[in-house]
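3.2 Worked example (two chains)
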Amino acid sequence: MRLLVVEDDKNLNRQLVEALQQAGYAVDRAFDGEEGHFLGDTEPYDAIVLDVGLPKKDGVSVLQEWRKAGRLTPVLILTARDRWSDKVQGFDAGADDYVAKPFHMEEVLARLRALLRRASGRATDEIVCGPVTLDAKAGRVVVDGAPVRLTSHEYRLLAYLLHHAGRVISRSEIIEHLYDQDFDRDSNTIEVFVGRLRKKLGVDLIQTVRGLGYLAAPPGDQKKN
């Protein structure tokens, strides 16, 4: 999953980005409302962490413009303001959730997991696909009850495929949602990671659909080329 953090406090921005990266997300960052608005308007993020008190353009205005343009990306607002009227303003602008500063990083991570669950229509942090279970909260993958050790990139790829199990995912969509702006989009990294995942999982879970992309589905439910 690819996230955007829009926060003008450089130290807090860094802490958020590091915590999200450690949790397995690809993260882009912005430090003012204009940059944040541009990125959120042009990149396909799975969720956005947005501060309200931003320079150049405030967070509420940014969010209102995204929603007016039809951007449905889940947005978690961060703000130092704790008045109920500020919270109402944020929700009315289109926020999906709200955290007041100061906050515990674990709460931000939990709320983001909840937003991503709701966006994919799931009720828990566990995704089960045939013999494979992925626990998004623990960052753990189990196959037939046995834990499988994955690198952060392998885990990120598997999580995205499982979030969209049963649907063919193109290579370009994977790149857009799994990697930040600095990723070399002409590389064969995706193919390499898919090969490694298949080997480590040891089950027929990820299928290549020729000319279209990749499909994650339980063995026996997969499509024929």
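3.2.1 Second chain
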Amino acid sequence: MTTTDEKLQKVLARAGLGSRREMERAISDGRVKVNGKTASLGDRVDPAARIAFDGRAIKTASPAAKRPRVLLYNKPEGEICSRKDPEGRRSVFDRLPRLKGERWVCVGRLDYNTTGLLLFTTDGELANKLMHPSTVIEREYLCRVMGVATEDNMRALVKGVALEDGVARFTDIVDGGGEGINHWYYVVIMEGRNREVRRLWESQGLQVNRLKRVRYGNVFIPSKVKVGQWTELAPKEVKDVYAMAGIAPPDEVESSAVPEKRKKAR
């Protein structure tokens, strides 16, 4: 064993494949191979190791090679959160800066027609911790609702509504103004279920025709970051994101310089 060896589950988690605990289960289930041999829990690997997960080769990066990075992206309508799409639709990854030896991991997803705040990081473990249900993080959305929401509707949405995948609720609803059938509301949820905001309003017979995420935990979209643009978080902001996830930031965050702040849409 050398000083550069690391626990296999830590390397897999950093690659964005899941949490360390999930990777431990994957190793125990025989889903991971190192240099062509099925790995065992407790194995350590060096940077030159050839690692395969479910038969697919995995690119890994040394933890000391580069500091972890976090981007904030203001997603427009008409982009998917997958890297590739059989229909040829544009991906949120298309506008992000290119990386060598690393990859961007998307923290959660937004629907094709939903706009607003998306976080990306090169630290897969951070991404998985931010998305895990045990890490309770507020997501705030601005939504335009077609129809008239009554006081009974509002009470039901805050108290909780039975959806097909379990009870869901808004922890807060704030009137955002508007007249007639088009009314704006700010709503807060604590989960990231598929189409959760839209489905909650639909449970009350109301339709959302505009939806934008404006906050993820303590991270807001800066006014200077227009739709289709990204900004890289400064080291202090990255440390705050690690604190939000409940994990300690790597030492590299402490000593890194302030990065380039903004990139225009291409």
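3.3 Remarks
The radius of gyration is 20 Å.
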